[in-house]
Design brief:
With 439 residues, this protein is mainly alpha-helical. It has helices at residues 2-26, 35-46, 58-67, 73-95, 99-107, 109-115, 121-139, 145-160, 167-179, 186-211, 215-219, 227-241, 255-277, 282-300, 312-334, 339-355, 360-373, 391-401, 424-428, and strands at 381-384, 407-410, 421-422.
Length: 439
Amino acid sequence: MIKFKEKYIQISLVIITLVMTILRFLLNEKGRTNPDSIRYMRFAHVFPTIDNTTTPLGYPLSIKFFTFFGFDEFWGSKVVGISAFLFIIFFTWKKKFFFKESILLCALFSFLSIFSYTMSEALILPFVILFLYVSSLIITGKLEKGKAIFYLSLSLIALYNIRYSSLFIIGGTGLFGLVFWKRKYSKTFIISGIIGGIFVVLYKLLFIDYFNENYVKDALTIGLYPTSKLLVELFQGLCTTFNPFIHIANPGGGMINYAIYGIGFLNILLIIYLFVKYKLSETEFFFVFLSISGIICSYFVQYVYPVNAIDYRLMAPFSLPIWLIYFRKLFQLFGLKVYSIGFLSILSGMLFTWLSKGNYLENRKEMKQFLQSEKLDKVPLQFYLETTEDLDKVQVAELTSTINPDIHLTFKPKDTLQKTTLTRHKVLQKIKIDKNKYQ
């Protein structure tokens, strides 16, 4: 009876999560996109031309793949996100690998938001699951020798081809083997980490340097941010990452942020308590080891490489293993009651989505009519900005890219003299956009 009841809870949670994922981008004025989304969709649109080396090929090519089935780049990106979610559910069910924990994980509003986003984190999450599965087979002795090295190395290479930050997973894998070198499986982790590292070097020499030989040199900048700023952002980022209900703080500050950070901080303390009190298995320890090393590397890379402040999205590949172990401990202690976390998280997400709702389909219709009337829907475009921090202007560019992805951002005022260069003023004097009042 309990299993029967749990089955229907799981089915309900999966269906609700799927519906909310779709509503999450439909009830958003620009369809859950950001400036990086412009680059991804443009890359997919112009491929096989290599548009840039700022991003690996994996995510743009996955978008490109779905365009062959009649989707444009925007809708293709949404199919990628939904497919990633469904794959995680199906794979973990088929392999009996953290199945109920994965259902709960995907129902968290933060992960649901990632699946609805036109960003590469949506694609990397199922590959993190595959990597963890292969690692668990190796640690438990079910996958050994050459096969183990092959599959583990392949999963590491696949991860790097989706996000460069997977370098931290490659490093964490090799480091785990070195730290526990006396264990039977340590050589597999060390060799796979080395193979992954060799691939990174070859990728840099044969791909990045070929198309943009100055990319790494131009990107690395020592002393970008002061430690005082980075430590505060680390605390805030971790508290929102591990808040099961609200993953975005109010940029304007206020009392609400104390509650958001407070819930996340208390949850982190509970995670530490459970991991210390209830002994971790070797597999579980590897998951936690990998997560912590990834978070630490993500923090220190900010000293030399310009990235966004640590938040739920950037931390998703590294927080995922901790969430799985955390939920396993909670299920062992509280049983079916733990599913309530997923339902409560979705409820908070519904409230947030409704309060901040926009109408993407209406905005898309308006923008499409504008571009077609100006004969700009199928030609390369530019969008003029003074700074990428100007949200109002960037959002118009993001919306434009969901219809015509062949668009570049320009910061040169003289470019505005061209007919194919849009500005916020040019667009909004002819159409009205339904805006989200909670930025």
